UniProtKB/TrEMBL annotation:
SUPFAM superfamilies in alphabetical order: L30e-like (SSF55315)
UniProt cross-references to InterPro entries, sorted A to Z: Ribosomal_eL30-like_sf, Ribosomal_eL8/eL30/eS12/Gad45
Domain Ribosomal protein eL8/eL30/eS12/Gadd45: 5-77
Protein name: Ribosomal protein eL8/eL30/eS12/Gadd45 domain-containing protein
Amino acid sequence: MTVTLKNAKRVIGIKQVTKAVKNDLAKCVYVADDADDRVLSPLKELCMTKNVEMIFGNTMAELGKSCNIEVGAAAVALL
């Protein structure tokens, strides 16, 4: 996963990922297991509605590190 996120065209963060999914640009979405479910629920529902694959199993810190940013990321979308 690390290589995939570092080199791929992607967007990071709930707002940007939501926008990408709404505009049918996201191929798949990585979702952090430790992110607040209240924040993630609308994105999860949108992904289900748009049939966008969601991949779980990472922490916010791991997603952030995989994207070469110094902070955690609740969600990352591959475009």
